[in-house]
Amino acid sequence: MRKYFPVEELARDERFNKITNRDRMRDARTTFDTSNSGATTRSNRLNPDRKDASDAARALMHGIFVGEIQALEGAGRTCWDFTTGDEAPFALKLDMARQCWDEARHVEISVKLAGWMGSEIGQYAENTVLFEAACSRDPVLRLAGVNRALEGLAIDVFTTMREFGELAQDPYLEFCEDWMLADEVTHVKMGSDWLRRITEDDPERRKKALEFQSVVDKLFSYGGTRSDSHESPIGLARRFRELAGFSSEEVDEIAEVSRQAMHERKSAVQAARQAVAEQFAGASTGI
After folding, report:
1. Which of 146, 195, 201, 234 counts the highest number of beta carbons within 10 A?
2. pLDDT in the model for residue 284
3. pLDDT by residue (tens digit) across 115-140?
4. Cα dihedral angle (152, 190, 247, 87), rounded to 10 degrees?
5. What are phi and psi of 234, to 5 degrees?
6. DSSP readout, 135-204?
7. Range 161-177 average pLDDT
8. CA atoms within a 13 Å half-sphere pointing along the CA-CB vector of 273
9. pLDDT (tens digit, 9 = 90+) per residue, 197-222?
């Protein structure tokens, strides 16, 4: 069987529509206004009181579903792509095999939850950034990009969805998200432990891996979607991240990256609104 399977050849049926992550974030059903619109206080956190709560929850659930598929594919590739012993310890491959089992279960749970919430596969598009992060030829980069960055994001997402299920008094959603959250903490902890063990005597390799993780974290903090601020729909689950092997300094760095992304988003929205206002003013005065 071939090694290093390219993202372009992932098997998908006619229900799936693949787009870039930037295009996905432009979908009005999956984006959130973090500009504040001049308000003094505002919360974009996912909760049942929001007028778009149903669509936002369905979109997030679909994103979880496709993410679980790609996490399964990525962990499976790590089991196969690297030579046992020389490139990847056997125990690491066992952990990745265990993760495959977990991710397969998560896919099934997510499909059932999507149906329970009134949506179906393909209602929202899929981007393949997660699997792309699992295509590196260095297993340490895969651990940093997938297990620590993207599975870390999954901790934030599952915590947010679990809280939403509790507020919405939906015991099915709350229970399933809590169950999957426990698995994600384990997956991130495995990535944290293995990254440190493999790079214990190679600080340059560790530095490169953490830099890659930072790039992926910034990519998925697009527009401040995930941060400590209540202006973000997804909260930063600090306690669970610490249980998964993140230091408080590392969580602070992620929070800062998200804060910067939110500031950039606000500036871009304000600039666009100003340009429209000036254009409208010019047209009304005949200039």
Report:
1. 146
2. 66
3. 999 999 999 989 898 899 899 999 99
4. -100
5. -115, 125
6. T-SSHHHHIIIIIIIIHHHHHHHHHHHHHHHHHTT-HHHHHHHHHHHHHHHHHHHHHHHHHHHHTTT-HH
7. 95
8. 11
9. 999 999 999 999 999 998 888 777 76
Residue pointed to by tokens 């340490």: 140
The distance from CA 173 to its chain's CA centroid, rounded to whole angstroms, is 19
Torsion angle of C-alpha atoms 38, 42, 45, 49, degrees rounded to 10: -110
Question: Does domain 14-21+44-285 match CATH 1.20.1260?
Answer: yes
- pLDDT reading at 232 higher than 60: yes
Show the tokens assigned to 175.
């229970």
What's the confidence (pLDDT) of residue 29? Answer: 53
* H/E segment holding residue 122: none
Counting runs of H as helices and runs of E as strands, what totals does the chain give?
A: 10, 2
Return all residues near 141 (Cβ < 8 A) that are at least 6 apart.
Answer: 208, 209, 212
* Mean pLDDT value of segment 39-66: 82
Decide if 134 contacts 69 (C-beta within 8 A). no
What's the confidence (pLDDT) of residue 39? 38
Token pair belonging to 236: 């930063």
Residue extents of the structural domains in the chain:
14-21+44-285
Token readout for 249 is 């300094």
Structural Rg of the chain based on CA atoms: 20
Per-residue CA distances from 271 to 66, 203, 275, 276 (Å) = 34, 42, 6, 9
d(CA 93, CA 98): 9
